Amino acid sequence: MELDAIDRRLLRALQQDGRVTYDALASEAGLSSSAVLRRVRRLEDAGVIASYVALVPPERIGLGLTAYINVRLEKQTDNPLRNPRDLFRAAVQTWPEVVECAALTGEMDYLLRVLVQDMQHYARFISDTLLMHPSVQDCKTSFVLERLKNTTAVPV
Question: Does the global pTM surpass 0.85?
């Protein structure tokens, strides 16, 4: 979808505050509220705006430790009914500690962003969940010491 300057301005404003009123958006875009409403609906219908969410700082709800875990899976098995990748992809969707999972190129297969309360919670997740999964061969963890930049906004 082609985005013009007004679409980009609207997207930047909505990424800053998803609850901004159409009147405020209209004033920022130099359009009427009804024109802004039509544009926003077009962006939603096209999937450019996927959803609206409340952003919850993890540490405010007791999830003070963030870990990035590189995961290597076992290679394909002889059993076509047991595909390690498919099993892992399904399992990761059920693990509440995992808030992001990306498939990677290179030495490791996946990168997980995991939010836990503390080191004990992390240890339980690793030993009782991740390493117990039959597809997982190895993992390597890095812990976040300090966040230098954290945004959900994409550059538009």
Answer: yes
